[in-house]
Design brief:
- It is a single chain.
- This protein is of the alpha/beta class.
- Helices cover 35% and strands 14% of the residues.
- Strands 14, 15, 16, 17, 18, 19, 20, 21, 22, 24, 26, 27 and 28 form a 13-stranded parallel sheet that branches. A five-stranded parallel sheet has the order 4-5-6-3-7, sandwiched between helices.
- It starts with a helix and ends in a 22-residue tail after the last strand.
- This is NB-ARC domain-containing protein.
- It comes from Centaurea solstitialis.
- Belongs to the disease resistance NB-LRR family.
């Protein structure tokens, strides 16, 4: 049990406590807090060294969480005192606050003393730990300890910082991927210097599986058998193989319909049916399983379909669902992945067994993942045998172990081999090697359902909000440290990047299924979070002091009558001992269609925690009391009806991310604000830029819609100084919502700006040197540029995505010169109404993968050189003339897929009559 990791989080919160203004000026209280931290460090070291602690771990864990609660309550009380009494706080409440610190210290010393009795050389004794009350008044009778340091303290705060700080030097991320392979691995620049990570097909998780891929693709596209089973040991790569096949170009072109269902633990036949009906856009309100099967069969019968059911663990579900998939002899296939061979007497199933990698393939994959070829001689023959024996030919074991070795100095590899002799599980070896903070972050990641694609940005901000990220001296912002945590876990192959953004940065990630299975019990043991499937009844929760509640989609569908009976109960069942007072967060992954019953269920649950619950998401205003939320880090009012924020938001010293909905601000930001994200701000002449918005100097993401006649220059001057800016969106509109003049100033000094989105009339396209040198993604809308922009844009060295939208260019001809657009992978051209001719010289856009053309009515040709080049994977044509689509179909290469859409689009706002004008930002 990783109790020591939880202690590290409490230490972090104590460190933050020292920064509270009301305490920072009181040396005695600071001294007492430091003594508390020393005691906690002693406790943590004892927990690491004491192997016989497991029987008492649950009691110690509850005590640690109790201390955490006490610390947080104490901090909140002190902050409130400061707000009411100002500088008098230290005088009025000195003894109260000092005594509170002493009591916390006493609790920790009490636990540490008990832990000392469990050192390895001591005989095992069953020690009872008393429940520690959270309210200060409950232990007033406890005598205050003296201020002497604890004898035998083996670790101080400074030592702890040294241990974890070495992993936190400044890093950058570099990504690339082959979209066909799904398994995408991120790698830091630091490790590129010492390893040979690359993105070849062999290293994307399908090493040694080429023959399997070829065999299965051939069978699925040519043979007649309807059902195919892929089976093998856990961690052997069944899901990886299935995903590779699912995304294979031959499979995409052969099947008219494809669907993927991850069959998770607890899934029933109904869950699988619902998932497939959603994929076919044939959602049903019926709870009748027979009707659901009939509807699905009717939908599939006229299609050549491929359905992959990943993780079918029992034959019971398969026997119950196989009749749903009609075999009409048109080449349709159903693929199952499982650990056991699937057999049934009623239908024929072609089985494909996945075998472990050979010894040579195991060592080759290990070497490639570790890199550091120059140090390979340090691994003896005995060590190679240890690798083979530990990995057992399973790709997951190999890449996890290789990820561990890649983070170590080659001279310390012998120590890793020593650990391998003591531990039989690769998962245990890799997990135990993590620092405490990385352990907690990784455990928290399995809060998301198995096989769930986790939004990377959301995950990092959750780590921050939960206090899992430790400040160090090399980084100003905790967000940067959280990024290094993520980088480290990706490099260790414990988190896999599953989807990239347009600029090749990580968008979504996942924890591999086998690793998720290993980590989830550990997360539950540490009471990090609790998962449930039924918010109507708390019977399953029991007497736990739940700190984080996670709701997964229930495999059981309640009937309306059953639901109404339960919802009429005004309080939770008396037999449940669930105490919601400790709850810190609630997250729902219930993907059922939101309806009255589901909303009521969540409302009832939240009502037990916050009295009135949440009645509506259509918020119209936020009270000024929002300024009292001292620790608030993110305020997101997007997709609401809020059009103005109270000035009290600028009292939020910890606010870092402010996401708005084209919202006005009531007052100017303070110069002390550390805001990193300001997105969706509406700006007019009332809000000052000089000595106002220009107080915000640390912004990384900025999105502004503005109506400015006179001071656009002030706006651009401010933006030109935001050297940390990474993403910028500017929309210039008039009072009718139409695009208006947009002034552009040089952004050549913004060396971190990679995303730029401009909506508004530009007098001319800026020169190449005026764009940010690191620009990767450029979006232009309603720019009304008259001169061909491609010669200038083609010279931008890092441009990977170009979107020319809604009359960004109003000329008749475009020419892409030889050698231009060297890095461009995606090009969108939408509603370029005047464009007639487009020429691409040979040697231009050589890395283009995705071409998207929409509603360019007059475009008469598409460059043959572009359609014939080897890297173009996909062409999407929407609202284009038939003659144009036919010409593209004739000229494109066989390896390029083509999608034709015939959608109709409403006219742009300025194309409508004034009486029907629509604000495009609200549409």
């Amino acid at each position: 049990m990783a109790v020591e990791a939880v202690v590290s989080v409490v230490l972090q919160k104590l460190n933050e406590m020292l920064k509270v203004q009301a305490l920072a000026q009181n040396k005695l209280i600071i001294y007492e807090v430091q003594e508390i931290m020393k005691s906690l460090n002693s406790m943590r070291d004892l927990m690491i060294s004491t192997k016989a602690i497991d029987p008492q771990a649950k009691q110690y864990l509850n005590a640690i969480y109790n201390i955490e609660d006490t610390i947080e309550k104490f901090t909140v009380i002190v902050v409130r005192q400061r707000k009411v009494f100002g500088f008098l706080t230290n005088h009025i409440f000195f003894f109260t606050n000092f005594n509170s610190c002493q009591k916390i210290h006493h609790k920790i010393k009490k636990i540490t003393t008990q832990l000392m009795q469990l050192k390895p050389h001591s005989p095992y004794r069953n020690i009872h730990i008393e429940e520690i009350p959270t309210e200060y008044e409950k232990d007033e009778e406890t005598p205050a300890p003296n201020h002497e340091s604890i004898t035998g303290c083996s670790s101080t705060l400074e030592t702890q910082e040294t241990k974890t700080g070495s992993c936190m030097e400044e890093l950058t991320f570099s990504y690339s991927c082959n979209e066909e392979e799904m398994q995408i691995v991120g790698v830091k620049e630091r490790f590129q210097k010492t390893s040979s990570f690359s993105y070849k097909e062999e290293e994307l998780g399908i090493f040694g599986l080429k023959d399997d891929v070829e065999i299965l693709v051939t069978h699925l596209t040519e043979n007649s058998q309807h059902f195919v089973s892929i089976y093998g040991l856990g961690g052997i790569g069944k899901t990886t193989l299935a995903r590779t096949i699912y995304k294979h170009k031959n499979i995409k072109s052969h099947f008219q319909f494809r669907a993927w269902v991850s069959v998770l633990e607890g899934f029933t036949t109904k869950d699988i049916l619902l998932s497939l009906l959603k994929a076919t856009d044939k959602a049903t309100k019926s709870d009748d399983e027979k009707q659901m099967k009939l509807k699905l069969s009717e939908t599939l019968v006229n299609k050549r379909y491929l359905i992959i059911l990943d993780g079918v663990s029992t034959c019971n579900i398969w026997n119950d669902i196989k009749e749903t998939f009609p075999d009409v002899k048109n080449g349709s296939k159903v693929v199952l992945t499982s650990k056991q061979k699937m057999e049934t007497s009623e239908v024929d199933i072609v089985s494909h067994q996945m075998m472990p990698l050979s010894e040579d393939d195991t060592l080759n994959l290990f070497k490639k993942k570790v890199g550091k070829e120059e140090s390979w001689h340090l691994i003896s023959e005995a060590s190679k045998k240890a690798i083979l024996q530990s990995c057992n030919g399973l790709p997951l074991n190999i890449i996890l172990l290789a990820g561990l070795f890649s983070t170590k100095d080659p001279n310390s590899w012998s120590q890793v081999f020593s650990c391998m002799k003591k531990e039989t599980s690769i998962l245990s070896i890799c997990y135990n090697d993590l620092t405490d903070h990385l352990k907690v972050c990784l455990l928290y990641s399995v809060l998301f359902p198995k096989e769930f694609d986790i939004p990377v940005r959301r995950l990092l901000r959750l780590w921050l909000a939960e206090g899992f990220v430790k400040q160090n001296s090399t980084k100003v912002f905790l967000e940067d440290i959280a990024q290094t945590y993520f980088d480290e876990l990706v490099n260790r192959n414990m988190i896999q990047v599953s989807k990239l953004r347009s600029d090749n940065s990580p968008r979504r990630c996942r924890v591999v299924g086998v690793l998720h299975d290993y980590l989830l019990p550990k997360a539950h043991e540490t009471n990090l979070f609790y998962t449930c499937r039924n918010l109507i009844s708390y019977e399953e929760v029991g007497s736990l002091n739940v700190r984080r509640m996670v709701e997964y989609e229930s495999p059981k569908t309640e009937t309306r009558d059953q639901f109404e009976i339960e919802i009429l109960k005004k309080t939770q069942p008396k037999s449940s001992l669930f105490n919601p007072s400790h709850l810190r967060s609630y997250m729902s992954f219930n993907h059922q269609k939101t309806d009255y019953r589901h909303a009521k269920r969540i409302g009832k649950f939240l009502g037990n925690i916050i009295n009135d619950g949440l009645r509506s998401t259509y918020l119209e205003n936020i009270p000024s009391s929002v300024g009292e939320l001292t620790h608030l880090e993110t305020l997101d009012v997007k997709h609401t009806c809020i059009d103005e924020l109270p000035g009290s938001v600028w009292r939020l010293k910890n606010l870092q991310h402010l996401n708005l909905n084209e919202t006005c601000l009531d007052m100017q930001p303070h110069s002390s604000s550390r805001l990193l994200t300001l997105w969706g701000l509406f700006l007019d002449e009332k809000i000052a830029i000089k000595n106002g918005l220009d107080n915000l100097q640390a912004l990384r993401e900025l999105g502004i819609t503005f109506q400015l006649k006179s001071n656009q220059n002030d706006l651009m001057d401010w933006i030109a100084k935001l050297t940390a800016l990474r993403s910028l969106r500017l929309r210039s509109k008039d009072n009718s919502g139409r695009a208006s003049k947009l002034v552009f100033r040089s952004m050549s000094k913004l060396h971190q700006l990679s995303h730029l989105n401009l909506l508004g009339n530009l007098e001319k396209l800026p020169d190449q040197n005026d764009f940010p040198p690191t620009l990767k993604v450029l979006t232009l809308s309603i720019s009304l540029i008259k001169r061909d922009p491609m010669e200038t844009l083609g010279q931008l060295p890092s441009l990977t995505v170009l979107r020319l939208l809604g009359e960004s260019y109003v000329g008749k001809e475009m020419v892409c010169r030889k050698g231009g657009f060297r890095e461009l992978s995606l090009l969108r051209m939408w509603k370029l109404k005047e464009l007639e001719n487009w020429f691409v010289e040979e040697g231009s856009m050589e890395n283009l993968k995705h071409l998207d053309i929409r509603c360019c009515d007059r475009l008469s040709n598409i460059p043959t050189t572009l359609l014939q080049q080897g890297k173009l994977e996909k062409v999407v044509l929407t609202g284009m003339p038939d003659r144009f689509t036919a010409e593209v179909e004739r000229l494109k290469s066989d390896h390029t897929s083509m999608t034709i859409n015939h959608w109709k689009f409403p006219p742009l706002p300025w194309e409508q009559d004034n009486t029907t004008l629509v604000n495009p930002s609200k549409a």
